[in-house]
Amino acid sequence: MASTLSHISQEELDYYAKVPKVHLHSHILGMVPADTLLSLADKNGVALDSRTPEELYRYYNFQRFVEILSHIAASIQTEEDYSRVIYECVERAYREEHVLYSELAVQTSYHLLYGSSYQQIIDGFSDGIRRAERDFGVQARLILGLNRQLPPPIATHIVRQAIAYPSPYVIGIGLEDFEGYGPPEDFAEAYSLAKSEGLHRTVHAGEHGPAQNVITALTRLEGERIDHGYRAAEDASLAYRLAENHVHFAVCPTVSSRQGWLRPTGHIIKQMYDCGMWLSINTDDPAIVGTDLNREYALAARYLGVGRREMTGIARQAIDAAWLSPEEKAKLRARFDREMAEAAL
Ligand SMILES: [Zn+2]
After folding, report:
1. How much distance in Å is there from the Cα of 193 to the middle of ligand 1?
2. Residue 180 CA to ligand 1 centre (angstroms)
3. Domain ranges of the chain
4. Is 141 within 8 Å of 323 (Cβ atoms)?
5. How many helices (H) and strands (E) does the chain have?
6. Which of 149, 147, 148, 202 is nearest to 171 (CA)?
7. How far is CA 344 from CA 15, 18, 19, 145, 341, in A?
8. What residues sit around ligand 1, an ion, with C-beta below 5 angstroms?
9. Residue 341 alpha carbon to ligand 1 centre in Å
10. What would the mean pLDDT of 123-134 be, rounded to a whole number?
């Protein structure tokens, strides 16, 4: 059943490539194509463990995944590198996936670990976003990723840096990485500080960890969105409550399938959808896992058992969950409708 459900035709991919989208959950290091990694590593004299794209991004456990992220982070060294990486991400997303707006997660601690300063990271990424906005007429903003595998004071320190060096491009924070470590409550200080400074808040929860993490993320951390959140759908009464409260879940079909959320009875996102939970479709780490947003939409349609009209509704509703002003959202909705009509979809 899993393989039938995962087969997507070129016609479906071509259709979803034309649908305008917003992208709320993807990590920048996981969006860097292998050929860009090779080019940056060569430029900066970084030794990689392979020269073959398939080998470079082959992962079999979380430890290997972290190793891959480390290679990519080590290869991005100058402000120009940061600018190039994000410019190319936004360009590709616009040209190939029709992404009009994205909120991209910065794996802050990886970059700091490899010697970049906070200022250098943000200046470089901001420059790339500005250039992409000028060249393609689309917007992108940054979410500061907080690594839950590191001690919580590091997360607080990153939020303090964001406050000391404010940027219009940095709009929020997001607790991320392997949920077997760092329960959300440990990061309450970083989150309350972020809230007091007007930064938005998302949390990876209920992916590898218990449903309780979703509740804690919403209550103790005052999270405004949840990344993944699958575990919460296993408890129907909780799922209905989350739906009633209009909590947004940024889900990722391919990555969740690989983690076991595609079951013989169907994918967990169908359970979420059937309970009325509010979902957006996202990629997580597309270059490493070998997917893109078009494929994730086609897969979601398959897993949810819905048609193209419902998927258009899901794509448009993601705008509501974006961290934009009401005026910017209204403009984006108008553009979405106009471009759907122009593409005769
Ligand atoms: Zn993620």
Report:
1. 22
2. 14
3. 2-342
4. yes
5. 18, 10
6. 202
7. 11, 10, 10, 38, 5
8. 284
9. 32
10. 98
Round to whole Å and give the CA distance between 298 and 102: 19
Answer whether 0.90 is exceeded by the pTM: yes
Alpha carbon of 329 to ligand 1 centroid (Å): 23
Paired tokens of 70 = 């480390």
Q: How far is the CA of 189 from the centre of ligand 1 (A)?
A: 21
Query: What's the rounded mean pLDDT across residues 10-33?
Result: 98
Give residue 25 CA to ligand 1 midpoint distance, Å.
Answer: 6
* Residue pointed to by tokens 């709009």: 171
Q: 283: pLDDT confidence band, cut at 50, 70 and 90? A: very high
Give me 14's structure tokens.
């071509």
Report the 3 state secondary structure along 79-117.
Answer: HHHHHHHHHHHHHHHHHHHCEEEEEEEECHHHHHHCCCC
CATH 3.40.50.2000 fits 2-342, yes or no: no
- For residue range 189-211, what is the model confidence (pLDDT) as tens digits? 999 999 999 999 999 999 999 99
Model confidence at 62, pLDDT cuts 50, 70, 90, reads confident
Q: What are residue 144's DSSP bridge partners?
A: 106, 173
Q: Which of 38, 16, 26, 134 is nearest to 89 (CA)?
A: 26
Ligand 1: distance of its center to the CA of 343 in Å? 31
